[in-house]
Amino acid sequence: MSPQIHNDRQRWLALYVLCAGVLMIVLDATIVNVALPSMKDDLGFSDGSLSWVVNAYLIAFGGLLLLAGRLGDLFGQRRIFLIGLTAFTASSLLCALAQNQGMLIGARFVQGVSGALASAVVLGMIVTMFPEPKEQAKAIGVYGFVASAGGSIGLLAGGVLTQAISWHWIFFINVPIGVATVVLARRLVADAPGLGVKAGADIPGAALLTGGLMVGVYAIVGIERHGAGSPQTLGFGALSIALITAFLVRQGRIANPLMPLRLFRSRNVVGANVVMALLVVGMFAMFFLGALYMQQVLGYDALGVGLAFLPSTIVMGAMSLRGAARFTIRFGAKTALITSLVAIMVGLLLFSQTPTDGRYVVDILPAMTFIGFGAGLSFPPLMTLAMSGATPSDSGLASGLINTTVQVGGAIGLAVLATLASERTHGLRADGEVTNVALNSGYHLAYLVGAGFAAAAIVFAVVVLRSAPVGDEQAVSAADEPHGAAVEVSQASGDPAGLPAYSEA
Question: Start and end of every Major facilitator superfamily (MFS) profile domain (predicted)?
Fold first, then answer.
């Protein structure tokens, strides 16, 4: 075997190992939802305290993603990935062994911290490993499938493990997978040194950023319980905005910022993150509210819900792994992205028409197919665009940014949609409507709002993202580099943005 073939084979094996780690973390965000009733009965949770099994994870995960991505740039992305994955495996074992509420919630918080460390740097590692545009498109397609379809796989796996064995096994299953992934990652994933602490060891900035994001996520997850206009939600929301604003002001004034603001000069980076934030609202609506519709209106059990999402996962996989790269290379990323957003909007509109006696093949499958097609087609170009303005020294930061956008945007959107659905349902119940009809009407409103977010994403993509001839070279000025060196970012030099046909003007 020639050295080149060996290196290519090792790169692809390394990609699969990285994605295995990400899949384990993505699964954990949804697999727990199916097991919550069993946890409640076994450990004696109240309705209020049970939510912290989910919230403890979300607050830590969403709050640390951006910082974790930058830590990868500073200390080495492989090192941060391995630390995060090792800690995630250990905390999964603690979750599995939990015999009381405090132990489970504490272990879930550690899972969130370690999950952020491991997942935040992966996209940056991928664009560095695969600089050639066509290979990068395929690699990001694999990553996009894991990121987008992992949620529905989690619902299925959670239903199977919880009903067949016990809720403890949704965490036990992570241990052998995590150990194997750590061992293989140490052997296959190339190590690259980071910039070093002096390039951005801004401890006060890190405290402001992490505190702002964690407080913000805490405010978001409390909306359903306290209300969007409650003093608690408004107070913590204002505090979050103040902390993040102080962080951004500080980054513009210090010599070695934790988060160099030059990244936000890229029109495509900003545009991709905004489109992603709008898009995930609809996606979260499909996963969360779709599962509730099937359980509470149609009477599906946990395993039935997981199986119902399987066709959508298959379509996502087909598009992410093969279709998206070919479509994007042939028609351009802008066309691929807009097509995908239209498909997602159509799927949400179809969901808004589902009856209380809906039939799976007639009423649910078409909507899931459209959304699966759209998600599979949209994630690879969006992920590539989000990395397009990042220099190699900022790739971890850009990776952490798009992951933060997914988590925070989805959390905000889901809180808004769940609140709207709940208020609509309660209003109809107060007027004497039967429960099934009231619930379904609430879900319909949420789907329509989600479709509106998808429509806004289409408009934003059309207006903000500008196409350019494929193969155009882009330059990053000397002022944009931390050491003042001019860097030519092109296909020849390994441009992470080589695939999308966009200009940064």
Answer: 14-469
Local structure of residue 483 (DSSP, 8 states): T
Q: State yes or no: pLDDT of 6 exceeds 60.
A: no
Confidence of residue 441 (pLDDT cuts 50, 70, 90): very high
| Mean pLDDT, residues 359-372 taken together | 91
160 and 240, same domain (yes or no):
no
**CB 333 within 8 Å of CB 502:** yes
What angle, rounded to 10 degrees, do the helices at 395-430 and 267-284 form?
30
pLDDT of residue 47: 57
Average pLDDT value for the chain: 78
Pick from 350-359, 377-386, 399-408, 459-468 the range whose average pLDDT is largest.
350-359
Are the beta carbons of 65 and 116 closer than 8 angstroms?
yes
Tell me which residue of 429, 449, 448, 451 sits closest to 439, measured CA to CA. 429
Does 501 map to a domain?
no
Q: How far apart are CA 15 and CA 127, in angstroms?
A: 11
| Token output for 108 | 């879930």
- 3-state class (DSSP) for residue 488: strand
pLDDT at residue number 50: 73
Judgement on whether residues 8 and 44 belong to the same structural domain of the protein: yes
Q: What is the pTM of this model?
A: 0.73
| Residue keyed to tokens 């500073």 | 74
Asked if 185 and 66 sit in the same domain, the reply is: yes
Mapping DSSP to helix (H, G, I), strand (E, B) and coil, where does residue 400 land?
Answer: helix
C-alpha distances out from residue 473 to 140, 467, 489, Å: 21, 13, 7
Residue 126 located in a structural domain: yes
Distance CA 268, CA 251 (A): 21
Among the listed residues 302, 376, 392, the one whose alpha carbon sits nearest the alpha carbon of residue 344: 376
| Closest to 136 (Cα-Cα) out of 380, 403, 465 | 380
The yes-or-no verdict on residue 206 having pLDDT over 50 is yes
Burial readout 343-364 (b: 16 or more C-beta within 10 A, e: otherwise): bbbbbbbbbbebeeebeeeebb
Domain housing 385: 3-201+256-489
Residue type, 477: S
Residues 445-460: what's their mean pLDDT?
A: 91
